[in-house]
Amino acid sequence: MKLMTELPKAGYLTSAQVKAYFAISNSTLFQWLADPSMRFLTPIRIGPRAVRFCVEDVRRFEEEARLASRNMLAQPNTKPPLSVGVQQVDGPALSRPKDCAPTTSPESVPD
Fold first, then answer.
1. Strands (E) located in 14-111
2. Number of domains composing the chain
């Protein structure tokens, strides 16, 4: 996929151009379109299987997303970020529960 770095001054974009501009896949585009909380672009249907997206709407979405991102960074973080791996827990080391013990003893395993 060739990335699109600049938008035209006016007009309409195809789905492929929108995906290239935001560097997203087909499935991400469809998820964003289906999720009302994303407030993503409203496609303009130009045929039974063809849609276009208004360039001004793309710019507006991008600016709103940028502002929302800045606002999130300015607010104190109350939840851990999703990218955090395994969280260190204070307390005793975890061990295998008794009911998860192996059902076979080493002596009963065939050679």
1. 44-47, 50-54
2. 1
